[in-house]
Amino acid sequence: MEGTVVIMLDVRKGKIVNSQIVRSSGYRLLDKTAKDWIDAHWKFPLHVNRLIKEAVTFELDDSPLPSNEKYYQTSYIPQ
Question: pLDDT digits over 43-70, tens only?
């Protein structure tokens, strides 16, 4: 899965009070992951009061893993 999701953020007094997906990546899982991560982790200075449009891109890297690096697979299960 690869794609870019565009999210509109309504920031008031430095906090995200609302976020909305305005363009889907084409994959519900990528869209939800980007929105949930932004909502939970992004912070702004207290003086920020505005709408912000942000794009999040998910890409797969085709380069092989180094032979000494272990590979761990994780799964995201939406609630």
Answer: 999 999 999 999 999 988 776 656 655 4
